[in-house]
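Recall the central idea of this unit: under ordinary conditions, the amino acid sequence of a chain determines the structure it adopts. In this exercise we apply that idea directly, starting from the sequence alone.
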Amino acid sequence: MTVRDDVPESAPAQPKPASSWRTRLRTVVLVIVLVAAAAAIARNWRELVEALGELSPWAVVAASPFSLAAMIISLFTWRSLMADFGAPLRRGDAARIFYLSQLGKYIPGSIWSMISQAELARDLHVPRRTTLTVGVLTIVIAQGIGLPLAIVTLPFAAPNAAERYWWIALVAPLFLAVLHPKLLTWLLNKVLRLVRRPPLDHPPSWRGLLRTAALQAGVWLMFGLSAWILVIGLGGSPAEALPAAIGGYALAHCVGLLAVGLPAGAGVRDLALAAALSSVLSAPQALVVALVARMIITVVDLLLAAIQIRRRTSSPANAPA
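Accordingly, the structure predicted from this sequence is:
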């Protein structure tokens, strides 16, 4: 049974005991994703050092808290959806599931984060279909908010990027249409029926979806401000760079999510962000911003996951008898 925030922390949830094979499997998967995340840094280490040499150190330091804020808001976005689908989680439980599962995006394929979320949430008696449904819907909402944001900002701030990625104007309405609660419920139940699973116990609500959409807009804003500070650090005009950075990051991340099979949208996301920023920076400088922005979020992902691992291993429930 999951526990709401109004339940005192002194009354912990009763997790479902994990079997030994599941524990060993999770340990192996955790090691794999940690190595994959570290490899993401190692692969670009030389370029990263060169990029940092061009950037003022203060710019990297100042940009990092905004990426951290984006990931914190992302947690509340996911947690809000879980609650709307009938699986409210305490902040600590939600943070452990969400931040550990984020490491799965560094493994090629777009399903590992969702699978990790479903497996971790299962210990709190959350049905897999609920967690997997929320995982898919999180991506849909990210696209439904991010793509229109890029459509609104880029034609004015980065016309070259708007021309290159013209097709997002065709895709964005599809994601927005799916966010209608009645249509969304019908589609989800249709898919569940095809895979021979029971229908949703708690259909999504207008209130829940609107709250999640507002939180997702905050995610794009924080990521955009992080990239904006990096642009300023390379001499870009603050006024011209702001819409290009916000719309460009939303575009880049959405395009990266559509790049199924690439770890964290590697390459595709960087090129899209560089294209958006090329209107306010030279092409090499724009690529520097894209690379450093990726490295910042990788470090943030590792930091947040490490905090959850430390909390888990130091909790009284895991202390030796």
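Residues 1-18 have pLDDT under 50 and may be disordered.
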